[in-house]
Amino acid sequence: MAAELPPIGQLRNSLAHSLKLRQALSSKMRLGQIIMRDRFKALLAETGYVTPGKRLDEVRVLFMGRESFDSLSEHDRQFIYEQHQKDITEKARQNFHELLLEQAELFYHVKSIAPTGTITQEDIRDITQTLQEDSSILSLPPQIMTTLDSRAVLLPLNSLKLLMLSL
């Protein structure tokens, strides 16, 4: 027959067991939160309605009732959504700049007409129209196409103008 532990020994074992259970439960909950964050990120990536510049409030209804959305705190949802917005905006900007670089010959006439570097609204309108007719730009997803307006052309246009002037 095994010797019984004194009451203090039983208390120590009980406390140690309780702490182990609490730590295991805490680890399981953290792992669950990490999984839900990853699932929400994947859900954002799969959803075509989340486009650059849209606020979470505009698309919230699409995610309500989804476990990955409902299980996160508002702070976590907002943080993950803002990070996703940064990612898709940067990707759209890079894709747009690549397409503009592919069309660098469009900008050459701006260099030869206005060597001072002045870009007119007519130049922007002509370039925008030509780019909108380009099949590679037309094949872009709609969220990237929305960046093709005068304001979006102006910044890369200035960069390309500097590039063309250096040639």
From TrEMBL:
GO terms for biological process: regulation of axonogenesis; regulation of cell size; Rho protein signal transduction. It holds the Pfam family FF_RHG35_4th. GO terms for molecular function: GTPase activator activity. Residues 36-89 form the Rho GTPase-activating protein 35-like FF domain. SUPFAM superfamilies: FF domain. One of its GO terms (cellular component) is cytosol. It comes from Portunus trituberculatus (Swimming crab). This is Rho GTPase-activating protein 190.
